[in-house]
Structure to design on (762 residues):
């Protein structure tokens, strides 16, 4: 037969359990707005075995079995890829939509400059000896060259901006990698001591989410419970309790923009990453070395091809002083960097009479044959098989497609991520209403169990009074 | 679905941000009147806009050059018309003084008039327009005819574009029209011959110039006809390029401009969406158990 003191013990265990439930609800409420926090549940269990009294079993109270997190592993398994994808496409879209130099409505862009150049040639072709029209051609040629320079500079600036962002994110990635390695160690230590370190697991999840979002690493959980971060290409940025380090090295083959290196988790290296990272770093690199670089290369080719075509005609023409063999534009030997460096031949710029308008020395000053041939370059196919106009239109269109696609991917990936985060939040997030109910429930339980103790105490006093 | 407080706040944030973004885009479209402002707004249209803008400007430039060429040809035609009148006057004198009833004094006086006509003809042939001589071919920086009537220009005919890649003659060959190169009549030489015959009281000589002066007049007429044809081509080019320019501008407008009604509708819709989003968010924040527990 149970004694009254065991009732007190039962009441005490209930008070402890109610206090644990209240504490868990309070912890949840305290972290209701903590990013990455997964709500916890105090799992109460009846104390076993029950006591056998008068041929039947009477319970011995309640105990706190465990405090566990409410998580959906299926959803969480999908999140790293979504995080990396959204961060990557968002960063790429942000880089690609940062320029205005290729806008169709840009009044200082290449389209009006090219148009102005050919218009001035046409005006001069009608009256080749007019000094003011010659000056207008020189001015429009300079404007065309400067617009090539400015457009190239804008594209370079956007690429440099992405490069700068890339470098500024590396310390964050390294800090997160170090945090993840440290949290791996702490989780292992805590688990070795027994129990599940929920808050450490939340902190590790938060660190690994941020690292995945930044680098596109895949999280590989090993048998010891470590969350290892594996970069695209197979190199580990975090392995168990060791973190590698990402660093940047100027790449002369890419205009001095940086390439990424990894000092491995065992301290070896640094080695240049053979595969680009994903996540935000990958998006920045994709923007920098993707559509922007393509546009810059196409612009260089256009400047070089157009300049070369115009030079070929101009060299065969004759200036007002009868001289010939002069270039209209100064270009390098190859298309590399041509848009950035193209300029009007200094002697022509200084003396518009050196513009070669005539096809023969005898035709000076009224012959406009060379000028008409210069005008004809407008419809001449360049190295890419297109005219300058079509090349420019194609460049703008291709850039628009690439940047539009990046934006569309960004919207799509953002939507996928938001959906997954909503689902995770729905499972693991804290509902204030729910926790208030839990808290109230624990409070009521506590009050009831207090009553059990009070009643038992009264019963004990009654019993003691019988003996006195 | 289980809904947490963070979800309510996150959704409110995301919803209002999306609505504000849509409103911003609608305001931008309404204020600029442009549907395609960036290449990514409509990549295909952005590329076509480049071509259409270049084409529109190209037609404008061709039209302007053609207009100037037409003006020059008009000036050249005017000068040749004057030359034709002067030659016609000389021929009148030649016809009149071919008659044996006139004496040496009459022919001497007529010779003086013809001598006065010759510099006038040369002056017309040395006409400048837009700062250059019209009848010197490519040698347009100096008088194409000297005082003695020698041609100092060359045989070139200027070419000006009337359509992309299509050139039209924009000058007349004075060596052909006036000096008769290629089997024609040297008009100035005919005038000089008339003067000499008149001075010499040579009736037969005067009669002999009648044919050459008539041929010269015909020659100038032929040249003027050619000019007229070219002028018509340039005038047609001006009209055609204006029309082509307008067509390209219309294309630009279709590609880039926003439809005002559609834009206004988008703006109104975006405003309503934002209002609804803010209202819904505010409503969502109000309901909490916290307010009911005392």
């Amino acid at each position: 037969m149970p004694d009254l003191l065991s009732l007190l013990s039962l009441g005490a265990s209930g008070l402890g359990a109610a206090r644990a439930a209240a504490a868990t609800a309070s912890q949840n409420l305290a972290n209701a707005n903590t990013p990455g926090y997964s709500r916890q549940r105090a799992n109460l269990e009846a104390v076993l075995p029950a006591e056998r009294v008068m041929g039947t079993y009477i319970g011995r109270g309640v105990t706190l079995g465990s405090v566990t997190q409410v998580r959906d592993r299926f959803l969480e398994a999908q999140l790293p890829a979504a995080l990396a994808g959204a961060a990557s496409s968002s960063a790429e879209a942000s880089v690609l939509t940062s320029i205005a130099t290729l806008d169709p409505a840009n009044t200082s862009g290449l389209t009006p400059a090219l148009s102005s150049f050919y218009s001035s040639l046409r005006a001069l072709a009608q009256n080749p000896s007019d000094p003011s029209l010659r000056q207008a051609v020189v001015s429009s040629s300079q404007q065309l060259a400067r617009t090539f320079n400015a457009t190239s500079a804008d594209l370079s600036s956007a690429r440099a901006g992405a490069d700068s962002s890339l470098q500024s994110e590396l310390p964050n990635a390294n800090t997160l990698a170090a945090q993840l390695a440290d949290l791996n160690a702490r989780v292992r230590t805590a688990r070795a001591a027994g129990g599940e370190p929920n808050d450490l697991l939340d902190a590790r999840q938060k660190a690994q989410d941020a690292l995945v979002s930044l680098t596109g690493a895949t999280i590989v959980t090993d048998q010891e419970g470590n969350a290892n971060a594996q970069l695209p290409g197979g190199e580990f940025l975090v392995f168990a309790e060791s973190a590698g380090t990402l660093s940047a090295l100027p790449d002369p083959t890419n205009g001095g923009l940086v390439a990424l290196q990894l000092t491995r988790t065992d301290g070896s290296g640094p080695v240049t990453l053979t595969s680009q990272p994903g996540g935000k770093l990958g998006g920045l690199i994709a923007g920098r070395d993707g559509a922007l670089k393509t546009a810059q290369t196409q612009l260089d080719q256009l400047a070089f091809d157009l300049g070369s075509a115009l030079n070929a005609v101009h060299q065969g023409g004759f200036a007002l002083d009868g001289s010939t063999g002069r270039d209209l534009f100064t270009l390098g030997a190859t298309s590399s960097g041509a848009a950035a460096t193209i300029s009007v031949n200094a002697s022509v710029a200084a003396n518009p009479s050196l513009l070669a308008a005539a096809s023969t020395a005898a035709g000076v000053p009224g012959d406009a044959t060379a000028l008409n041939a210069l005008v004809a370059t407008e419809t001449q196919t360049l190295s890419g098989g297109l005219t300058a106009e079509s090349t420019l239109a194609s460049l703008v269109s291709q850039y628009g497609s690439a940047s539009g696609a990046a934006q569309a991917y960004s919207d799509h990936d953002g939507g996928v991520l938001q959906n997954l985060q909503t689902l995770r939040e729905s499972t693991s997030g804290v509902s204030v209403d729910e926790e208030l109910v839990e808290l109230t429930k624990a409070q009521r339980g506590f009050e009831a169990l207090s009553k059990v103790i009070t009643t038992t105490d009264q019963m004990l006093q009654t019993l003691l009074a019988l003996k006195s | 679905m289980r809904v947490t407080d963070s979800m309510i706040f996150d959704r409110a944030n995301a919803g209002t941000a999306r609505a504000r973004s849509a409103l911003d885009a609608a305001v931008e479209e309404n204020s600029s009147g442009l549907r395609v402002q960036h290449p990514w707004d409509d990549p295909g249209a952005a590329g076509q806009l480049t071509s259409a803008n270049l084409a529109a400007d190209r037609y404008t430039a061709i039209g302007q050059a053609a207009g100037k060429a037409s003006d020059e040809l008009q000036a050249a035609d005017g000068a040749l018309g004057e030359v034709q009148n002067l030659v016609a006057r000389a021929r009148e004198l030649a016809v009149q003084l071919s008659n044996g009833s006139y004496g040496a004094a009459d022919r001497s006086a007529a010779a003086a008039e013809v001598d006065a006509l010759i510099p006038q003809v040369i002056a017309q042939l040395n006409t400048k327009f837009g700062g250059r001589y019209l009848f010197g071919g490519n040698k347009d920086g100096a008088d194409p005819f000297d005082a003695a009537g020698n041609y100092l220009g060359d045989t070139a005919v200027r070419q000006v574009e009337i359509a992309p890649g299509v050139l039209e003659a924009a000058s007349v060959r004075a060596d052909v029209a006036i000096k008769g190169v290629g089997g024609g009549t040297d008009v100035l030489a005919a005038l000089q011959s008339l003067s000499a015959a008149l001075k010499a009281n040579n009736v037969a000589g005067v009669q002999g110039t009648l044919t050459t002066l008539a041929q010269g007049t015909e020659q100038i007429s032929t040249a003027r006809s050619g000019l007229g044809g070219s002028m018509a081509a340039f005038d047609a080019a001006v009209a055609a390029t204006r029309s082509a320019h307008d067509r390209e501008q219309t294309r630009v407008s279709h590609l880039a401009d926003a439809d005002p009604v559609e834009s206004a509708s988008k703006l109104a819709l975006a405003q309503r969406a934002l209002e609804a989003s803010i209202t819904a968010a505010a409503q969502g924040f109000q309901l909490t158990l916290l307010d009911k527990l005392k």
In short: The mean pLDDT of chain B is 92. The first helix of chain B runs from residue 5 to 32.
